[in-house]
Automatic annotation (TrEMBL):
Residues 1-21 form the signal peptide. This is FAD-binding PCMH-type domain-containing protein. Keywords: FAD, Flavoprotein, Glycoprotein, Signal. Pfam families: BBE, FAD_binding_4.
């Protein structure tokens, strides 16, 4: 089934007012501080191919997209420092891209006319693993698939609790919080960071001790691009048994899928559900795809499933026993025979346009609600889907120790990712129909989702929630940021803004949904 940034010694406190002269000076500065072949200007023959290399949504390649002045393909931390320093000196902002999965493309485009450069970290990819040790240093441009492969081959008794999509960049995943299939056992991605190295707005490289605990807290789920450029993460690895089990169960409307979803809601609330077991659900058209990952053998899973979710009818024939590494390949590619080496493929396919939104649910939808959802919405659009990620356990249980800015914890049943896909033109008739359907579905689920605020997931960026307003001083308004940021970060927004004011008061690291500095009232 197809599944679709410690104290800043800042250089200048004035607003950045770029001009053609400053753009030329920026480019000259870059080429004087790093190899010129790593800087792709718009006139370069390879500019478009490098720009497109990790764009995941073709609608951001249209003529209406504001394109960068150049792309800096950093292959060393010194190149990142050069880009930041040249940008500050000459009034050119940076958009920082690792995996390119930003759902609104803000890591490589600007919505409003602006002179900016893309700092592409794809060449900064490497994983330093010591066999038997429970940590690894990971470069910021590494994808989750590359991380999984390195850990699973060099340190097979360990795992990192990441997400299901192998081409997502590690930095993007962590800086937005990072939910995944193993978070009930190990917490979200941001909870599993031991250290980091960041290039701040002065172009200096800071580790955890130098940056301080406030900034270290902020970058692990508060939108890392708001505070600087993280160039490496030291990640905590957790022990994993040699055999894990993956089960895929497809159930249709005719098989009582609404009833099963209502039972699933009850199951993920059950105190008897072990944290080693996760059952996520993908809803599309007339069916639900129950995807189970159990950190143990099939026989143990079946004994547990019979006690907590017998209605699903899981059997031994459904089980796929394998190593954790092979399981991550299976979950992403949908084929148990896919070799783990496929996780190293960074190639993207630009065939499908899409738009995504997100929600959090804290009270059960119930059978009637699920039935109405299928009858009125999902069954009427085969190109729409919903992904339900269960919470609880280490990420939101009663004894959860909150160590990162990810706020959607205690009391959350599950996260919803909505998606609507279409083919053809970015803004044609098919796009309009797909977006109307998505807005309608999102509106329908409002009666079951959280409210005041209606919570959303920062990693599923959605500009429909609001955008920053930049004042005459060139600094994003804290008040305008509240409109969208309290949905992503809730009560953590003010603390994040205070960190921003401490490390980047002139708001150099800025985009349409970056954390604004907390003003001095």
């Amino acid at each position: 089934m197809a599944l679709v940034l410690a104290i800043l010694c800042f250089l200048c406190g004035n607003a950045i007012l770029p001009s053609s002269a400053s753009s030329d000076s920026f480019l000259q500065c870059l080429t004087s501080m790093m190899p010129s072949e790593l800087v792709y200007q718009q006139s370069s023959s390879g500019f478009m191919s490098v720009l497109q290399s990790s764009i995941q949504n073709p609608k951001f390649l249209t003529n209406t997209t504001v394109r960068p002045l150049c792309i800096v393909t950093a292959s060393d931390v010194s190149h990142v420092q050069a880009a930041v320093r040249c940008g500050r000196w000459h009034g050119v902002r940076l958009r920082v891209r690792s995996g390119g999965h930003d759902y609104e493309g803000l890591s490589y485009r600007s919505v409003q006319p602006e002179v900016f450069a893309v700092l592409d970290l794809a060449r900064l990819r490497g994983v330093r693993v010591v066999p038997g040790e429970g940590s690894a240093w990971v470069d910021a441009g590494t994808t989750l698939g590359e991380l999984y492969y390195a850990v699973g081959t060099a340190n097979p008794g360990f795992l990192f609790p990441g997400g299901a999509c192998a081409t997502v960049g590690v930095s993007g995943f962590i800086s937005g919080g990072g939910i995944g299939l193993m978070m009930r056992k190990y917490g979200v991605g941001g909870d599993n960071v031991l250290d980091a190295r960041i290039v701040n707005a002065a172009g200096d490289v800071l580790d955890r001790a130098a940056m301080g605990e406030d900034l270290f807290w902020a970058i692990r789920g508060g939108g890392g691009e708001s505070f600087g450029v993280v160039v490496a993460w030291r990640l905590k690895l957790s022990a994993v048994p040699p055999t894990v089990t993956v089960v895929n169960n497809l159930r249709t409307m005719e098989q009582g899928v609404a009833y099963l979803l209502a039972k699933w809601e009850t199951t993920i609330l059950s105190p008897s559900l072990p944290a080693d077991l996760t059952i996520r659900v993908v809803l599309q058209e007339r069916h639900a795809f129950f995807q189970t990952l159990y950190l143990g053998r099939c026989s143990e899973l079946l004994a547990t499933a019979r006690g907590v979710f017998p209605e699903l009818g899981m059997t031994a024939a459904d089980c796929n026993e394998m190593s954790w590494l092979r399981a991550m390949a299976f979950i992403y590619f949908g084929n148990a025979a896919t070799p783990p080496e496929a996780l190293l493929n960074r190639t993207n396919s630009l065939g499908t346009y899409f738009k995504s939104k997100s929600d959090y649910v804290r009270r059960a939808v119930g059978k009637a609600g699920w039935d109405a959802l299928f009858q009125q919405w999902l069954s009427k659009n085969g190109n729409g889907l919903m992904i339900l990620e269960p919470h609880g356990g280490a990420v939101g249980g009663a004894n959860t120790a909150t160590t990162s800015p990810y706020p959607h914890r205690r009391g959350v049943l599950f996260n919803i990712q909505y998606g609507s896909m279409w083919w053809g033109e970015a803004n044609g008739t098919a796009a309009a129909a797909a977006l109307r359907w998505l807005d309608g579905l999102y509106g329908f689920l409002g009666q079951y989702a959280t409210s005041n605020p209606r919570e959303a997931f920062a990693n599923y960026r959605d500009l429909d929630l609001g955008q920053n307003v930049v004042g005459r001083d060139g600094v994003s308004s804290y008040r305008s940021g509240r409109v969208w940021a309290e949905k992503y970060f809730m009560g953590n927004y003010r603390r994040l803004a205070a960190v921003k004011a401490m490390v980047d008061p002139s708001d150099y690291f800025r985009n349409e949904q970056s954390i604004p500095p907390l003003p001095k009232f």
